[in-house]
Every structure is written in C-alpha cells, then in structure tokens.
Amino acid sequence: MNALAKLTTVETKLLLREPGSLVSVLIPLFFLVVFGASADGTDTILLPMGTAIAVALIGLYLLPTTLAGYRERGVLKRLATTPVKPGNLLAVQLLLQLVLLAASTALQLTVADRLLGLALPSRFGVAALVLALGTAAMFAIGLLIAALAPNGRAANGIGVLLYFPWPTSPDSSSRCTRCLLAWPGSASTPRSGRSGRPWNRRGRARSRTPCR
Predict the structure, then answer these.
(1) Among the four 50, 164, 167, 194, which has the fewest Cβ within 10 Å?
(2) Residue 179: per-residue pLDDT
(3) CA-to-CA distance for 1 and 7, rounded, in angstroms?
(4) What is the pLDDT of residue 178?
C-alpha cells in the first residue's frame, strides 16, 4: 500500500508537469468562454460540448500518449520486476485522468454559471450518468490506441487524427463519430425532453443537437 501511495504521488507530479494536462483543461474552457460570451441563457449546447471536448482530449490524446510513452521507454517491463506491477500504474493513470476530467468539468460548470449565465443541469444524476458512459467509451478507445501504437508519438498522432475530424466534418459519413463526441454531454440535453429535460432552461431551449 505504501508503494502504491508513492506511485500515485510520483504520477501526480508527472501529470502536473505534462503540458498536455494543461491543454486538456484550457482548450475546453477557452471554447466555452469564447462562444459563451455571445450566447444567451437559453443555450444548452455549449456547456455539454465543452465537456465533450475535455473528454475527447483526455481520452484520445493525453491517456494513450502517456501509456504508450511508458511502454516505449520500458517503464512497464521494469515495473514488472518490482512489487508495484504494471497494472497498478494503469489503475493510477486512469484515476488521475478521471480526476483531471472532473476538475475540468467543475471549472466549466463554475464559469458557465457564475460568468456566462448558461443553462446548468437540474438533474445532475442523469447528466453525470451520460458523462460517465461517454467517458468510458472515450477512455476505451484511448486504451486501445495505447495498446496498438508503437510509441508515444504514434499514439499522439493517432489520437489527434481521430479527434479533429469529429467536430468539423459535415458529411453524413462522419455522423456517427460526431455523435460519439457530442454524446457525453449534449445528447442528454435537448433530446431528453421526451422524458424530462435534465438541464435548466432560461427561456426556450433549442431542440437541435449535433447528432441530428
């Protein structure tokens, strides 16, 4: 248990020094602030999309790049000869990435509420469940990239290649991938009106989602 605590401390320090962790927090926040500054209180898309961007950045970029880099440098092989097994490192990394995502989400919620006046979830349980399922999907893809990529740079390239066409490609062939990106946050927003909207409305909220 002591070794696991030390491993967690070391990995936390390394994560805080990693520029990608700062990028994963600031880019979604920048997106939210830039577009939210001109939005009114009826908007129910920006906050879920900002959260979805954070999920994708951490799951497709930061997580696979870190793990593939460890494998490239032989860190996992060396850990296999110690009481701290590679599985412990994987568990610690997943935990830290989830904490980073939680911090990014909390920051966006605070900015959206206090500074931008955007709609917030009124049914946090539903929103949290959708976010958790979307996060699990993105992290699963990230772990697959980490397992297949030969090194950290390849994992970085694959993650970026998978991520950037999702929110930008308008053709019908990319509809499924755009839905996956939007789903962790926004799929529970306007479309859930059939069974009760889990987000507050200030006026008339839009019924259009990026998945349609």
Answers:
(1) 194
(2) 47
(3) 10
(4) 45
